């Protein structure tokens, strides 16, 4: 790890880079599926600029004999699809990086830094076949050969992929991939390149989902049937995912005029017995905060997907960060309980999103799911989610004549009625209210109502998802992390290779486990890793346990942590 | 059904004696009773303000949400359960000011709901600042030199957006108001009724008598299906004569929102009665 590419590798990172519209995405989609079909473990993530054309975007694909779930800095194979591409990823190149590039993309400086760069006249070859647009497919063929992919798999895949097109387009694409394959083979021989990635029979039955698809599938599994949302990167994926499946699963999907409408729609929908989600990023969530407070007062279930990006204000719209924990934690005026999830991998995203709907319904509180740009755009093969393990818990009752929506009960939870189901009337109010739901200024009743609402916070504490301690129960150094950084941290600890270091990953960041202090007390050194500049989670942990973190590993340049980042920092701190 | 059906019994009503809100409440109960709308099937959605307290004063399901935000909630309630009768009711400040953006876009959705707006041309609850519909020159502790802004014309805006039912009434004419309410509630789609209402505490200009003197009914032979005519009538303000009242515009060719979305095309049951489709979900997961 971190060393240059040499000899045989079982774990290779391939980077595609080019300006928007140059086919980075096309090549990514083709290659990732081809690798998976070949039985390789595969991972992909992207970073992109906030513009529709031009700019520079890159995709990192990792291919391995073993599961790969985290981004690395190093580039083993680079395919620049544009002139400025090499420059864009300059800092990630090593002496071992293999570059497959159009002849005029390579200059002497590059050739000197990366002796293994090879000229492939993708465009010329594509033109000879019929159209320069085929250059991307030629590249797929070259990479296929280098990775020892069965040529029949390649041609079958391309044929299927373009099956809707005219016959000559299909034929020319097939010719392009075959030509690429031939060139790739020649290069392998000339330069003695060999990848030794072994297929794993498990991969074939696995699925490839990115973070936001996992949230979307989890939402459907949790019985979600309503979304009102306003587009905002990087949260929009959930809106489009549910829109795509609205017909199949009976989901009301409405693009709201703003996030304020979005969250008020969600609360209205829950009131009428639907299961709604609001989805947004930091700026939109800021607009939702009055609605969050409404859910607190009305004791309405509410699920909000908050996909983080760097702020303040518009910040870096297409970049990643973990800066909105405090926002989610303190959003909404007044005092009321809430729960916050921050999944670390697609499986957790599926489970916790489904759980968010049940938890919100049961305790009648807002529940937030924090993701981020890196998380929503990252995908890798993972075992298929088991929806049958998740039950949709409705938690509403048929009302009787004397029904009172805010009846004070022993545990603080009032049975939730919905209008039109039963003889009772469901009265919900944003003013302080009596048990029947009507406005009150009885200040003693006010105190009872506050206590009732807050008592649900204790129930949420009892229902907390425990953090993951990995890999060892015994440790000297404990690295705290939350949300999307889990797989990066896992790989970094494995690479760092010391068995006195463990990580404690929080997929639920609020409330925190009651006995967290005991776990932290076992550590000699506590490090907190977060994608922000101020250590928001460390503050929360200290508030909760009285224990402060010894070292911080913070990143806030808009990019996610990479395995090398973390390993280098660990070496500095405790190496 | 008897209007008493909606009575709350002995309750404390927060409105000032003599306020037009009382008449609106009475007329609304009568209209609902004449239409046989069962209280259990009725959801009154409101925001915050004096007008917005109305749902608490009649027996029904209530969603009394945030200032300005009744329409998104009402839209969602209606589209989660199209069997409910949904009325979104609040003041002019709430609907046209704080909730102005929702007012516009909710019309575009055309949900099957009634939107009743108490237009007293003032902010009552916050004690007398200008509202979006306050007339030019109206003096308040904030607008010390009188309102300088063009008054918001909700009827014209709604017609411009091709709302499917647009009316204005003066609560001084109870029979007319009731008739319009009934038509609005039975209308399939979005129905706006802007209700001119005196505020005896904070609007000493637009009084009962002022509304009486400055309004007149649309002509008897008026055709509400012509958008051009409707717009022309809507543009008549009290600055250049009398404000018309009545049903300005109806467009009966529009389908309500829930009939346009796939969710209710083969299954008319409300969302709360539905179950997750396990087989389809399993299939979907395996497709990835
Ligand atoms: C977000 C927010 N801003 C301001 C207020 C204060 N507020 C409550 S009601 C109201 C205006 C009420 O005017 P209108 O809607 O015309 O109702 P009226 O009292 O005249 O019936 C205002 C400004 C609030 N409750 N919430
Ligand atoms: S403030 Fe005006 S509108 Fe409000 S109750 Fe009093 S009189 Fe009616
Ligand atoms: Mg008013």
Description of the molecule:
The complex is a heterodimer of chains A (575) and B (288). With 575 residues, chain A is of the alpha/beta class. Helices cover 39% and strands 20% of the residues of chain A. Chain A folds into 4 domains: 8-205, Pyruvate-ferredoxin oxidoreductase, PFOR, domain III (Pyruvate-ferredoxin Oxidoreductase, domain 3), CATH 3.40.920; 208-389, Thiamin diphosphate (ThDP)-binding fold, Pyr/PP domains (Rossmann fold); 397-462, no CATH class; 468-574, Rossmann fold (3-Layer(aba) Sandwich), CATH 3.40.50. Chain A is built from 20 helices and 23 strands. Chain A is globular and about 85 Å long. The two termini of chain A are 16 Å apart. Chain B has 288 residues and is of the alpha/beta class. Chain B has helices spanning 20-34, 70-80, 92-98, 100-109, 154-160, 174-186, 208-214, 227-234, 257-260, 278-287; strands spanning 42-46, 61-64, 85-91, 114-119, 165-170, 191-196, 215-217, 243-250. Helix content of chain B is 32%, strand content 16%. The longest helix of chain B is centred in the N-terminal third of the chain and has 15 residues, at 20-34. In chain B, helix 1 crosses helix 6 (174-186). Chain B is globular and about 70 Å long. At the A-B interface, strand 7, helix 8, helix 10, strand 9 and helix 11 of A face strand 2, helix 2, helix 4 and helix 10 of B. Magnesium ion is lined by residues 91-93, 120, 122-124, 131 of chain B.
């Amino acid at each position: 790890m971190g060393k240059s590419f040499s000899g045989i590798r079982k774990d290779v990172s391939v980077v595609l880079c080019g300006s928007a519209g140059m086919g980075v995405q096309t090549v990514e989609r083709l290659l990732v599926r081809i690798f998976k079909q070949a039985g390789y473990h595969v991972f992909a993530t992207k970073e992109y600029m906030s513009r529709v054309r031009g700019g520079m975007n890159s995709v990192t694909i990792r291919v391995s004999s073993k599961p790969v779930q985290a981004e690395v800095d190093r580039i083993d194979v680079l395919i620049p699809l544009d002139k400025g591409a090499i420059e864009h990823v300059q800092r990630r190149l090593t002496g071992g990086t293999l570059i497959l590039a159009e002849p005029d993309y390579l200059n002497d400086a590059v050739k000197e830094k990366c002796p293994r760069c090879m000229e492939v006249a993708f465009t010329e070859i594509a033109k000879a076949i019929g159209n320069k647009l085929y250059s991307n497919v030629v590249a797929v063929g070259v990479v296929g050969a280098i990775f020892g992919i069965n040529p029949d798999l390649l041609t079958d895949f391309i044929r299927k992929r373009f099956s809707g097109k005219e016959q000559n387009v299909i034929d020319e694409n097939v010719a392009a991939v075959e030509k690429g394959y031939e060139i790739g083979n020649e290069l392998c021989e000339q330069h003695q390149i060999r990848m030794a990635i072994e297929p794993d029979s498990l991969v074939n039955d696995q699925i490839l989902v990115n973070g936001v698809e996992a949230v979307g599938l989890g939402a459907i599994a949790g019985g979600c049937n309503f979304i009102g949302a306003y587009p905002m990167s990087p949260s929009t994926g959930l809106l489009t995912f549910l829109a795509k499946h609205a017909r199949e699963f009976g989901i009301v999907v409405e693009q709201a005029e703003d996030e304020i409408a979005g969250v008020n729609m969600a609360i209205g929908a829950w009131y009428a017995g639907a299961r709604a989600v609001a989805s947004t990023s930091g700026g939109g969530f800021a607009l939702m905060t009055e609605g969050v407070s409404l859910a607190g007062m009305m004791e309405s279930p509410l699920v909000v997907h908050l996909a983080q990006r760097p702020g303040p204000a518009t910040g870096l719209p297409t970049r990643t960060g973990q800066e909105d924990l405090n926002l989610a934690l303190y959003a909404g005026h007044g005092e009321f309980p809430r729960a916050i999830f921050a999944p670390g991998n697609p499986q957790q995203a599926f489970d916790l999103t489904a759980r968010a709907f049940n938890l919100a319904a049961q305790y009648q509180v807002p529940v937030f799911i924090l993701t981020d740009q890196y998380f929503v755009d990252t995908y890798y093969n993972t075992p298929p989610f088991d929806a049958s393990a998740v039950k949709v818990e409705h938690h509403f009752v048929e009302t009787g004549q004397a029904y009172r929506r805010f009846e004070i009960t022993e545990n603080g939870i009032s049975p939730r009625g919905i209008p039109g189901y039963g003889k009772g009337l469901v009265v919900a109010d944003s003013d302080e209210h009596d048990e029947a739901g009507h406005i009150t200024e009885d200040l003693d009743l006010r105190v009872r109502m506050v206590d009732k609402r807050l008592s649900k916070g204790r129930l949420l504490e009892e229902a907390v998802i425990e953090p993951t301690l990995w890999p060892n129960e015994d440790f000297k150094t404990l690295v705290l992390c939350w949300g999307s950084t889990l797989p990066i941290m896992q790989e970094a600890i494995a690479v760092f290779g010391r068995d006195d270091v463990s990580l404690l990953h929080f997929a639920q960041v609020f409330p925190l486990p009651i006995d967290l202090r005991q776990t932290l007390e076992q550590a000699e050194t506590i490090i907190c890793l977060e994608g922000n500049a101020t250590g928001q989670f460390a503050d929360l942990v200290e508030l909760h346990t009285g224990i402060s973190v010894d070292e911080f590993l913070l990143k806030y340049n808009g990019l996610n942590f990479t395995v090398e980042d973390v390993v280098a920092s660990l070496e500095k701190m405790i190496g | 059904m008897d209007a008493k059906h909606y009575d709350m019994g002995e309750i404390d009503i927060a409105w000032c004696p003599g306020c037009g809100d009382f008449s609106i409440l009475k007329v609304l109960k009568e209209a609902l009773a004449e239409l046989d709308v069962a209280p259990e099937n009725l959801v009154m959605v409101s925001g915050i303000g004096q007008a917005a307290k109305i749902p608490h004063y009649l027996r029904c399901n209530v969603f009394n949400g945030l200032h300005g935000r009744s329409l998104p909630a009402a839209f969602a309630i209606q589209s989660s359960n199209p069997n409910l009768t949904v009325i979104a009711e609040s003041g002019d400040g709430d609907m046209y000011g704080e909730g102005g953006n929702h007012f516009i876009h909710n019309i575009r959705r055309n949900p099957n709901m009634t939107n009743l707006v108490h237009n007293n041309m003032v902010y009552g609850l916050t004690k007398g600042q200008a509202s979006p519909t306050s007339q030019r020159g109206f003096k308040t502790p904030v607008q010390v030199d009188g309102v300088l802004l063009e008054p918001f014309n909700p009827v014209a805006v709604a017609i411009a957006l091709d709302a499917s039912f647009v009316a204005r009434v003066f609560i001084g004419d109870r029979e007319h108001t009731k008739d319009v309410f009934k038509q609005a509630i039975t209308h399939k789609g979005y129905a706006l009724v802007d209700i001119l209402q005196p505020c005896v505490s904070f609007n000493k200009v637009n009084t009962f008598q002022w509304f009486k003197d400055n309004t007149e009914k649309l002509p008897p032979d008026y055709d509400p299906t012509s958008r051009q005519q409707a717009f022309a009538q809507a543009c008549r303000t009290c600055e250049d004569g009398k404000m018309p009242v009545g049903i300005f515009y109806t467009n009966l060719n529009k389908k309500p929102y829930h009939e346009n979305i796939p969710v209710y095309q083969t299954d008319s049951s409300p969302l709360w009665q539905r179950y997750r489709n396990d087989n389809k979900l399993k299939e979907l997961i395996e497709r990835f």
